[in-house]
Amino acid sequence: MSSGPPQSPAVAKTEVAVEGDCPLLAATFAYWDNILGPRVRHIWAPRGEQLMYLSDGEVTFLANHTLNGEILRSAECGAVDVKFFVLAEKGVIIVSLIFDGELKGDKNTCALSIILPQAELAFYLPLHAVCVERLKHVIRRGRIWMQKVGSAGYNIISVLSLEIAPIMELLASMKSHSVPEDVDIKDTVLNDDDIGDSCHEGFLHKAISSHLQTCGCSIVVGSNPEKINKVRFTPFSDPLCSASQDSTGSFVLPFRQVLYSPYPTTHIDVDINTVKQMPPCHEHTYNQRRYMRSELNALWKTDSEEDIPPETVIHTDETFTPDLNIFQDVMHQDTLVKSFIDEVFMLKPGLSLRSTYLAQFLLLLHRKALTLLKYIEDETQKGKKPFRSLRNLKADLDLRVEGDLNIIMALAEKLRAGLHSFVFGKPFYTSVQERDVLMSF
């Protein structure tokens, strides 16, 4: 990248205060001008010294890459196209979402982009799906504000700013606090000689089981960072996130962020040894979409974006009130994790045996998930027919225990997104509608 002077004030720029090192160089909002071509409307950059920064000419160059060829874009109403560029000659990665919107009274092709150094490619790729989903919702909110009578898109930057800053904070947090890719089992509770010193066995079993049932997504809270990390570093599936409680023993849960996560989440409290979990994937998606529609509806009704800060819980839709008690008890026991916990502590700690046994256990779960997917494919002729034989699946694959089925279904969901909705979708929607009707009497 150029080592010239900082960004020219010709393009409006907002510096975002981010705690820690943010891997993003910038986020940009650009649009296609029928006379001047691609135009950058606004830039957001993390505050502080950057090893790399974007000059005026470089921002224009990146805007050309994201918007060139889009003038004749033919897409369905509301469609968002995702583009991913790795520009080695500039040393950057660009993730750009292309969409149509009302700007200054005219329909324009727009692009919301994030720009990272190419050196962050390995860090970013596992987070790509999450970032894209977050950016798509930013665009949903932005589109509504662009179409509101009287706004004509002039205040779109204010609405986008409310969402861009949390995304930068999320990536900065993942960069500074993420779990290492290779977790040594000796740093986890699975290597304790006396399991009672850190947490009782039943709590550990429930925590691991629920973590697997919620697709490897968990929040670990507590007052002791060392105890948090021993659970947080448990080498199962995806990394977990953690948070310390304040002096009063309370922890403010980011309701909106948790609800908008792609998978349900497990809540693990290491102070009082409790484990709670969100509903399974199909119900989580259902609740997520209802809340999202409610939030967008509320934005449409307001006259100022300041009335709805990003973390406000929406109540304006009379047909839907969010259930703030989104975490529930772990209802279903399993045999898979219980057997693993019983057997792993029979092996001597400090040797490679426990690590080897863990690797074999994870391989077993993965193979069961692949087998489940193949079973459903065969039963439904690869999705051409509805799935009707859950009882037979449980018997044939030895998943009669609900907890075992939930674990394998969650792993299979990560291999084939939408599996839960395909298997459980129709009965679930019907049961939810019936429940809502009964509760209204």
TrEMBL record:
Molecular-function GO term, any one: guanyl-nucleotide exchange factor activity
Single GO cellular component term: autophagosome
Any GO BP: thigmotaxis
InterPro entries, alphabetized: C9orf72 (IPR027819)
Record protein name field: C9orf72-SMCR8 complex subunit
